[in-house]
Fold these 2 entries.
Entry 1:
Amino acid sequence: MNLRDVLHAISTTYHSIAIRDIAATKSRPKEPGNYVGHQLASLIRNEAAEVLYDCVALGQSNFTTTKGSPGQDDWAYVPWLAVYDPLASAGAMHGYYVVYLFDAPRKAVHLSLNQGTYSVQQEFKFRATEVLLDRAALMRRKISDVSTGFDTTRITFGHNSSLATNYAAGHIVGRTYEGENLPGLGEIEADLQHLMKVYRTLIFRGGLDFEDQKPDPAGSKKTLTEVRAYRLHKRIERNPKASKEAKKVHGYVCKCCEFDFAEEYGDRGKHYIEAHHIKPLSSLIEGAPVEYDIKNDFTVLCSNCHRMVHRHNDLIDVVTLKKKMKRRV
Ligand SMILES: [Zn+2]
Ligand SMILES: [Zn+2]
């Protein structure tokens, strides 16, 4: 199966299988057998997510993940296939990500740069839709120069479920396909690669974060691109997956001053250290994928040394810092 086959299979069959099943279970007791282990549910969860991964893996960060969901405990009104970059989202409920959202009644599918709605819902309750719309508009403006060719108008669904309302509000840019009239595989893949590039550009530009427009505390004349590269560097080393792996590979003793938290603080200090990304900022290019080479691109530092390496937002390398230390190690 290729990506086109997958989009075709889900968009053209989901309504007759799942949506009818949802309607039927409203008038009779639920039969979990209709859903659990169903061939279509399994296709969305497994094969489709794998096919999508194979399509996006090339040219992406090696920490990119994909997931497909036909619903959690029962069929969902809006099944989806999503791609997450760890710098923007760890899952469908948070951040922003690229997703295929199936509009089952119309046998259509929206390729969409969309947002997780969970935290917005928690914080803003019945105003969540408004907030999602505002956020989508802000992010849309941030990437308007690189997203030409995509639709910026609101997407719609053939039913009024609350999920559909949130997805419609969270939509930033994308393209809608008719399941029975899909373009060729090449065009589908090209659209996906283009939207992934828009996604990576949005990540580089800070997503919803507008802090990169604050004046630089050191008063240096950094360009906006340099400030953004520096902020991306910080997000890379704070990425929980990368930092966890870096600590596993590089250990828990500071590579600059040899401070060992466990030695100093006993059990409380055990397995404490900070991951630091050592690739030059000039290697972080807008729109390009971030490669995570844990062994060669990361090191570990104690909190003091890490602060000193980063002081004045002006990164120096660990060897230079080591030479500056009064207490020789
Ligand atoms: Zn140190
Ligand atoms: Zn660092």
Entry 2:
Amino acid sequence: MISKDRYLSSHKWDLMLKALPYKLPTTVVGHSVLNQPINAHRFGNGAKKVLLWSQMHGNESTTTRALLDLFNHLNTSKGEKLLTCITMMIIPQLNPDGAKAYTRVNANDVDLNRDALDLSQPESRALKEVFDAFQPNFCFNLHGQRSIFAAGKMGKSASLSFLAPAADAQNNLSPARIQAMQLIAHIHKNLQKDIPDQIGRYDDTFNPNCFGDRFTSLGVPTLLYEAGHNGLDYERHFTKKMILDALVLGLNAIENGEFLNCSMAEYDQIPENKKDYVDIIIKNVDIRTETGFFKKQELAVYYQEVKKGESVVFKPVCHSFSKKIDLLAHRVLNAEKILKLSEVEFNEGRTIDIF
Ligand SMILES: [Zn+2]
């Protein structure tokens, strides 16, 4: 299986922006390790300021693609009205080198979202400098998550996940954290009709090296948005639409203050993200390994994402097998009904023989 859309280099992104029928206000706010420009776009002139950044992990492109739809939204009459109340600063690709290489890390092999205190990397420094100069009232930290997450123990696939990060090691409910929780609760409530029980919440252990925790501790409500997985939509077109809806819901709520009606209890009720999914479970497989021959097993398979040219290839890799796999899958196959096992392409990363 292959996806063209999931691969989003800065070159490809630039072409997408150039194809827009309007020009984006653009400034260069820094340069990557490999000297690619880091661009930011500023919109509106409202009193409430919102800073958004995406693709600080280069292989998480879905939220960046949703930003293109957000730009289009901002160009409508509804968007224009929003921008009279809100000023936005958007950095679509904080890690252009990682975007090009399709890696989480930057060109120095550093996870930028563990560099919020050290600021050892030019990309991290660019984000902190924009934060200091812009002085946002809210931040949206945009990411993409693997297809392994369930919204709650053995729940539905987490199509979106959120976190209102902790502000300190004691998990105190600081004013900034409370506002982030209320805003997430508002978004969660309003998306239930589209993705019922498919929104998860991340664990809130404090990590000041993460930008969300760092900015929350500096007093700015910061929301982690994670584009997740839905069904067999590996291109993540559906998730992109849900991210756009979640962004517009968040921005509108900041504008009209509606989220302040939500309670922290509503945030706490969002089910926690659990690693309960694999991509495929194949039933009734006979398996031979170095240690023996196992009949009628259930085999769990996950996809490893590998850049190939201008695309992402999903390589099936064996996760585990047993008589009864205690996991959920986006696709369940029965080996007895598969005419060719090559359908699931077990050529790469194979550690066992399947019959
Ligand atoms: Zn990420």
